[in-house]
């Protein structure tokens, strides 16, 4: 396994944590197919799945940032757009040029994902949790999500 989900990756926001787990599972599935010598068509399907999962995840995060009026949203969004641009190019190469996905491609996606979680998603999750805690004591702009969703 390459990116096996573990509690160290949990950020404390269930929607984000669930997405991250799904991304890690998809990366692990791609890794397994590469190791087994999967065909370019099989690898393409897995890579497209990863791109779709990440796009859906980014959309959810972007809505959270909007709801929160998150001050670092612009930088975070730029990171999302760059990732989607690179993933789209990889998917294109795999589908149109029949390029085989190798360990280097998978490692690039994995490293980017871990860096994104630590450098972008962790601060966002902290801001969401703080906003929800502040809403309990009455000093916030409003709760991003019902508090019970984060602490059950």
The succession of helices and strands, N to C, reads HHHH
Number of domain units: 1
Largest sheet: none
Give the CATH topology.
Answer: Four Helix Bundle (Hemerythrin (Met), subunit A)
CATH class categorisation: Mainly Alpha
At CATH level 2, the architecture is Up-down Bundle
Q: Give me the Rg, rounded.
A: 17 Å
The helix content, as a percent range, equals: over 70%
Q: Beta-strand level of the residues, as a percent range?
A: under 5%
Spans of at least 5 consecutive residues with low confidence: 146-152
Number of strands: 0
What is the terminal separation in angstroms? 29 Å
What overall geometry do the principal axes of the alpha carbons give? elongated
Notes on the protein architecture:
The protein is mainly α. The chain has one domain (13-149): Four Helix Bundle (Hemerythrin (Met), subunit A) (Up-down Bundle), CATH 1.20.120.50. The chain has four helices and no strands. It has helices at residues 14-35, 40-68, 73-96, 103-137. Helix 1 runs antiparallel to helix 2 and helix 3 packs antiparallel against helix 4. The longest helix has 35 residues, at 103-137. It is elongated and about 55 Å long. The protein starts with 13 loop residues before the first helix and ends in a 15-residue tail after the last helix. Mean pLDDT is 85; it is low at 146-152.
């Amino acid at each position: 396994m390459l990116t096996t989900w573990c509690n160290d990756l949990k950020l404390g926001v269930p929607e984000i944590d669930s997405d991250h787990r799904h991304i890690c599972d998809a990366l692990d599935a791609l890794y397994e197919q590469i190791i087994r010598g999967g065909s370019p068509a099989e690898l393409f399907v897995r890579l497209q799945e990863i791109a779709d999962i990440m796009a859906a995840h980014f959309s959810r995060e972007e809505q959270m940032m909007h709801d929160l009026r998150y001050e670092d949203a612009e930088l975070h969004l730029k990171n999302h757009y760059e990732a989607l641009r690179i993933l789209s190019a990889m998917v294109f190469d795999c589908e149109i040029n029949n390029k085989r996905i190798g360990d280097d491609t998978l490692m690039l996606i994995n490293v980017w994902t871990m860096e994104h979680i630590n450098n972008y998603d962790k601060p966002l999750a902290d801001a969401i949790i703080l906003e929800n805690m502040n809403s309990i004591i009455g000093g916030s702009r409003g709760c991003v999500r019902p508090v019970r969703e984060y602490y059950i």
